[in-house]
Amino acid sequence: MSYNSAMQAWVDGARAALPLTTSVVPFGLITGVTAIGMGMSPFETLGMTLLFYSGSAQMVVLQLMQTGALPLTMVVTAWVINLRFLMYSAALAPHLSDQPRRRSWPLSYLLSDQSFALCTLRFGANGLGRFAFPYYMGTAIPLWLGWNLAVLAGIYLGAGISASWSLGFAIPLSFLALLVPGIRNPATLGAALLGGGLAVLAHDLPYNLGLLVASVGGVTAGLTIEQLRKGAPVAAEAP
Asked: In the chain, fewer beta carbons within 10 Å around the N or the C end?
């Protein structure tokens, strides 16, 4: 799809993100409920959410706070969990690195798993040119609003949310919805299989290192398979 204006690109990005925005609501509710249950004030909980904008890191830090971990441990753990955003940034850089600082800072802050996946699928090899930034923001802003509003709802609903709702089940489903459309060739299939397998095997590693191991393993597998595919015809023609 080609765009005639930045607004059209933004709206298309927002339209793509809306179904995924609903998937972050259960996660946000759980985060808000957990923080209030620990004794944090609504102001502290919402401030933490605005500062982090990373549900997985925020939940882990909340767990560490419950166990009385050192502040340094919390910071390092959150940093390790969010290392995946370095890989996301590297993948999006060819399409968005030409933006001025007034745009690059919001780009970095609003980066999420869902926005990365949507933009990766949409940009393709050639990108969207000058419409890459508005499309990205169209995916990112609804997700950011949905997350923060969900946490806010969790803050005020508190214990009124029953465990029987099984809200946590919606989280892996949302990531599966992102993963499946992205499997388009042997490289992405290999990355998904190895990354998923490592995530299961390394689940019990301390400090949530399993996520980092799975991410690095999946990316390495995908790159290796892609290089082997590119090198195969050359090797076949060699005397």
From this structure: C
pTM of model > 0.90: no
pLDDT digits (tens, 9 = 90+) for 3-57: 888 999 999 999 999 988 887 888 888 888 888 878 888 899 889 899 888 887 8
187 CB-near residues (< 8 Å, 6+ apart): 222, 223, 225, 226, 229
Cα gap 33→118, rounded to integer Å: 29
Contacting residues for 9 by C-beta, under 8 A, at least 6 apart: 3, 128, 131, 134, 135, 138
Residue type at 86 in one-letter notation:
L
| 3-class DSSP assignment, residue 111 | coil
Rounded Cα–Cα distance for residues 202 and 213 (Å) = 7
Domain boundaries, the chain: 6-182, 183-239
